[in-house]
Design a protein that fits this description.
The protein is of the alpha/beta class. 42% of the residues lie in helices and 22% in strands. It has a seven-stranded mixed sheet with strand order 4-3-2-1-5-6-7, sandwiched between helices. It has a six-stranded mixed sheet with strand order 9-11-10-8-12-13. Strand 2 and strand 3 form a beta hairpin. Helix 1 packs across helix 2, helix 1 crosses helix 14 and helix 5 packs parallel to helix 6.
Amino acid sequence: MRQYSLCIIGFGNVGRALGEILKNKSAFLREEHNIEFNITGVADSRGGVVSRDPLDIDILLETVKNKGSVGYYPDLGNINQTALEVIQLCQSDILIELTPTNIKDGEPALTYIRNALFQKMHVVTANKGPVVFAYSEILELARKQNKLFKFGGATAGALPTVNVGYYDLAGSEITSIEGIVNGTTNYILSRMTEDKLSFEEGLAEAQSLGIAERDPSLDIKGYDTAYKMIILAISLMGAKIRLDDIVRNGITEITPAHIAQAKEEGKVYKLLGRVFKEEGEVKVRVEPKAIALDHPLGRINKTQKAVTFHTDLIGSLTVSGGDAGRIPAAAAVLRDLINLSREDH
């Protein structure tokens, strides 16, 4: 039985969902995968808790529910403890970094990841920022420390994009990638297509259902899609690219007239992210495009996501599906944990 102690930084919706999964799946993980995961450190925005022995997941969840922070965990919690202090004290096998993405510089997540690697921890993150801003640096540091760095949940949640490209397409050259990787914008465009809603009406509905954030800028202006496609570009196609290098347009200018014109042509609007080579250079574009209904991405609707890989040896491969929400996002982190355990020699 392989045992791993976990330090979780960021105990919001996804962090708590991961705790629930680890508890509910503990017997399954032991029986089917011969591994056991125990949480020995947790930090949220208000405090932290560290223990040499496994922390009780039920108590962690109840403490956050009733008191608002793991810093109130009985006897062991510290309401003034910072995430860095938790990382330095917990001495866990794996850091799970789940703080919100900072699109400006990837901090403070990048600092957390660096510190964990310096302390000889493996790292799993669902945070786009550190991968976008410091992928090569993190990978090199992990190699020097003989540790693993996993980020499969950073691109499209439950949809296995990075893993498909890295494992299942091994040996093939990926010549281009195109994808619908933002559920919010796809929902809005789907509603505009199906029921002739305006952009504003589609956005309001998405917000009322909890699909769109109160401030939806990162989604509707194409930033979220851009970061996800940049991650695919740098990790699977060797690109050295930043947000300023790419063409990025969101969906705010799409009108019912655009949708109607596309319908007449047998097409449908999607916010499409593309990674491609032009004169030997890898480039990324994010823009709403009218694509044919028989296109592999043409019937990806509502909050569904999909990515198509074009390769030299096996042709084109499309992966689609995966639910949205806290549980699927946490399941993507669990997937990385299991794959990490398989590769940890």
